């Protein structure tokens, strides 16, 4: 009786397992199936060497070079344009062509980019050697910037990467900290464009220890106290209560008074500065020279620019 019970349980388990297998959706490995949600960033370019294989069709295995027209010549079916496609998308297009011309019913095509032709990565903006860099494969962003001579003193750390097909723009933040920059590393592919914008600059002029322009790097946030500190502080002869802020608003310059001494004492809140702001700390009454906003702004053109360290 116990044996019959055990056999019944075993039969029930096998029946349920068989039913579960029947309900499961089969995995479609046909190259003609829709692409996954993960998009390939490295696309096929002119001059690339492709290795094309078709499952169970060894006679149709071929290595073809992409022509200047962006097309490749395939066995039996003729030419097809693949430049600008990812390898999986090219495989689906080739499979579709073999089906439409009735050579194969369910072709499972694989396309492997065996050799990249030399393509360019364009680096523009605040690098020491902007221009086109000849590459044969994907490179790291830090490697690309090094090939372009590195960042300039006034480079913004938010670097934009535009993919070759113009479908995606990625902004990568490279902080001054070396370890953090390595963690932010990303790949740049042939045909991509890298743009390094100019960082915002705040000018601290007048009776300070080190007048000049200061780059708003990293998070691009700078307050009045931080800017004065970067200028090594106001001199003893400075008339801090008459500090002036000149800011460009809607194409014209507006001037306001900054209570620098009260901010330093903590009786007034610190103020956030914006790119191209001019903070002017006047001299004491005995040394004071009354300067208009236009005279102060003209002096920014000759001011030394200091990058944050």
Question: What is this structure, in a nutshell?
Answer:
The chain is 22% helix and 29% strand.
How would you characterize the overall build of this protein?
By secondary structure, the protein is an alpha+beta fold. It folds into three domains: 49-115, wza like fold (2-Layer Sandwich); 119-196, Outer membrane lipoprotein wza domain like (Outer membrane lipoprotein wza fold like), CATH 3.10.560; 200-306, Outer membrane lipoprotein wza domain like (Outer membrane lipoprotein wza fold like, Roll), CATH 3.10.560. 22% of the residues lie in helices and 29% in strands. It contains seven helices and 20 strands. It has helices at residues 2-23, 87-100, 141-147, 178-183, 224-230, 260-265, 293-298, and strands spanning 49-54, 62-65, 71-74, 78-81, 109-115, 119-125, 131-135, 139-140, 158-162, 169-173, 187-188, 193-196, 200-206, 212-216, 222-223, 243-249, 252-258, 272-273, 278-281, 305-306. The strands form six sheets. It has a six-stranded mixed sheet. It has a five-stranded mixed sheet with strand order 7-6-12-9-10, covered by helices on one side. β9 (158-162) and β10 form a beta hairpin. It is rod-shaped. The termini are far apart. Mean pLDDT is 82; it is low at 9-38.
């Amino acid at each position: 009786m116990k044996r019959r019970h055990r056999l019944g349980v075993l039969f029930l388990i096998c029946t349920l397992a068989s039913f579960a297998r029947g309900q499961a959706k089969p995995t479609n490995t046909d190259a003609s199936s829709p692409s996954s949600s993960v998009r390939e960033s490295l696309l096929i370019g002119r001059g690339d060497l492709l290795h094309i294989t078709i499952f169970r069709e060894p006679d149709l295995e071929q290595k073809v070079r992409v022509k200047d027209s962006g097309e490749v010549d395939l066995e039996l079916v003729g030419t097809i344009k693949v430049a600008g496609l990812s390898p999986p998308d090219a495989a689906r297009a080739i499979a579709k062509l073999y089906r439409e011309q009735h050579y194969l019913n369910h072709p499972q095509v694989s396309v492997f980019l065996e050799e990249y032709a030399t393509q360019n990565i364009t680096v523009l903006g605040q690098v020491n050697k902007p221009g086109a860099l000849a590459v044969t494969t994907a490179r790291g962003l830090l490697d690309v910037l090094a090939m372009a001579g590195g960042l300039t003193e006034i480079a913004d750390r938010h670097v934009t990467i535009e993919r070759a097909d113009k479908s995606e723009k990625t902004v990568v933040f490279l902080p001054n900290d070396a370890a953090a920059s390595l963690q932010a590393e990303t790949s740049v592919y042939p045909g991509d464009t890298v743009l390094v914008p100019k960082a915002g600059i705040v000018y601290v002029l007048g009776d300070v220890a080190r007048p000049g322009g200061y780059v708003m790097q990293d998070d691009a946030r700078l307050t009045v106290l931080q800017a004065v500190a970067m200028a090594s502080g106001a001199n003893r002869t400075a008339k801090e209560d008459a500090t002036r802020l000149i800011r460009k608003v809607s194409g014209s310059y507006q001037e306001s008074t900054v209570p620098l001494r009260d901010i330093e004492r903590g009786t007034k809140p610190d103020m956030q500065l914006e790119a191209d702001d001019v903070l002017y700390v006047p001299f004491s009454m005995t040394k004071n020279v009354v300067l208009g906003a236009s005279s102060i702004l003209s002096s920014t053109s000759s001011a030394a620019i200091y990058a944050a360290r």
